[in-house]
Predict the structure.
Amino acid sequence: MPARAVGFRTGFVFVLASALAVGGLAAQAPAAEQGSGSGVLRSLEVNLYPVRPKQGTVFLIRIKEGGQPVPSLVTRFAGEQVSFQAGEDGWSWAVAAVPVDAPSALELEFDATWPDGRSERFAHVVPVAPGRYAMERLTVAPEYGAPLSPALAARTRAEVGRARAVARGAHDTPPFWRPGDFVRPRSTRVTSPFGNGREFNGQIQSRHTGTDFQGGVGEPVTAAAPGLVRLVDRFYLGGNVVYIDHGGGLSTGYLHLSETGVAVGDTVAAGQRIGAVGATGRVTGPHLHWILRFGSITVDALSVLDLELP
Ligand SMILES: [Zn+2]
């Protein structure tokens, strides 16, 4: 996504005065703006890239403080913390994610606390573009559509829990990356995109939460960005898996590998081989299932390739 010379710059909406029912664009919001306390946060400039992020994608935020600096600022979006990195020119940047089922607007919440205990809270409305994800009908052998046994369901829950813990932990790791650093883990075509609703044997089961890349067994799978390997194991559904913590809230997962070439604790570079395409776990054939998460929100991994600052 090309960076925009002029970002999304509006006033702030005091959180109590604004509402998620706001269906229009935040650019129309200043009429609803109300101050509280010193109103210092109102002098923050906020830019979004893109200006209207899509359901199921990551996007970038830049802020610039006008006037007196805010000593302690906590920012949240869609239930996840948003951590800003100091950039050049007085701007700070952060990444955040729009859940795939988000409404047409969400609030970026800023909480400032002053040394004397005063606090200020503001929300900036982020308009959300529809994801328009498709429905995919799959006809598969009955065993693939059948529910898991209680024992396998418990094992799968535990494995999913471990992957999700890695994803949440990425908030506590400083970013190894900067916008523009992410690359595809395979150069081959995408055989199944993120977000498709999946109907197995006539029943809607789930949404596809990864991006599938074409590949034969043994072909290389590479890290999408610099990061720290947090999890390498053999899962029931995912087969041989590698999960990488990129910091700044972002993590990626690589599933169904025939072999893994990294260990927990390894640091990896973008484009470094971490394993090979396989057909391990519950799959019908070899491919790479690539996952991107921001905290606990799973989004379209391809959207991370578009993160770019002006
Ligand atoms: Zn997949």
In short: The two ends are 11 Å apart (CA to CA). Residues 1-38 have pLDDT under 50 and may be disordered. The longest strand covers residues 105-113. The pocket of zinc ion is lined by residues 192, 208, 210, 212, 289 (CB under 6 Å).
